[in-house]
Amino acid sequence: MGTVISIRIGAAAGNAGFPHDEALRAAARQAVADVFRGWNDRFSLYREGSELSRVNRGELRLTQAGSELRDCYALALAWRDRTDGVFTPHRADGAIDLSGIVKSLAIAHAGEALYGLGLRDWSLNAGGDILVAGDQTPGLDWAAAIVDPLDRSARLASVPLRAPLRAVATSGSAERGEHIWTTVDGALSPFRQVTVFGRDIVTADVLATAIIAGGRPALHRSTETFPIEVLAVLRDGSLLATPGLRADSA
């Protein structure tokens, strides 16, 4: 997926034997790597032999694809409807591109794999999109640091990832340039970067992309419809933050 994946395991109750159990650490690394490798092999548009590449070349009909691909496509279409078409799995050339949802699904499934190993206290970070589990000692919660898109060495805020908002996703142009299709007037989104805190990583990831693509109307619609918090950086560097985030960030 062209990104770095990191795992941090806490020492809270439920992670018996950690961090001294090397076998458990190795099993966690392998389980997460296997999940991401499987999703990448099937959905990457940079791999000629991937199932999605074959569908886009017309070598495989969508109806003949595996259930995992068809379910992922159906989920992307459902999110297209929920965002009034701002989030879409279709590129301008007609190709199906599921990259806007595949990484978050892989993160969610990797979290399930960690649970399957008996781990209950962990943080999983894939290219800046984060999912956490477990109750930390008060004052030592899992936290997400939000980087300033105008100065990658600076931090805008540090936000505790307390229940029920245990997932955070960021979209924008700072890392990869202008790569998100927009539906706003003009060529560029009014937002340079959007970070969404949600109850699950798929919702956070989709809405971060949708707000970048749809501008202020998408921001207002998303915050009114979904239980999320948002930190948005406008083109001039000014910030927009939802009330709950302003009260909880440092």
Automatic annotation (TrEMBL):
GO molecular function: metal ion binding; transferase activity
The EC number(s) this enzyme carries: 2.7.1.180
Keyword Magnesium assigned: yes
Catalytic activity as recorded in UniProt: L-threonyl-[protein] + FAD = FMN-L-threonyl-[protein] + AMP + H(+)
Listed cofactors: Mg(2+)
UniProt keyword terms in alphabetical order: FAD, Flavoprotein, Magnesium, Metal-binding, Transferase
PANTHER family in the cross-refs: FAD:PROTEIN FMN TRANSFERASE, THIAMINE BIOSYNTHESIS LIPOPROTEIN APBE
Species for this entry: Cryobacterium cryoconiti
The protein, known as: FAD:protein FMN transferase
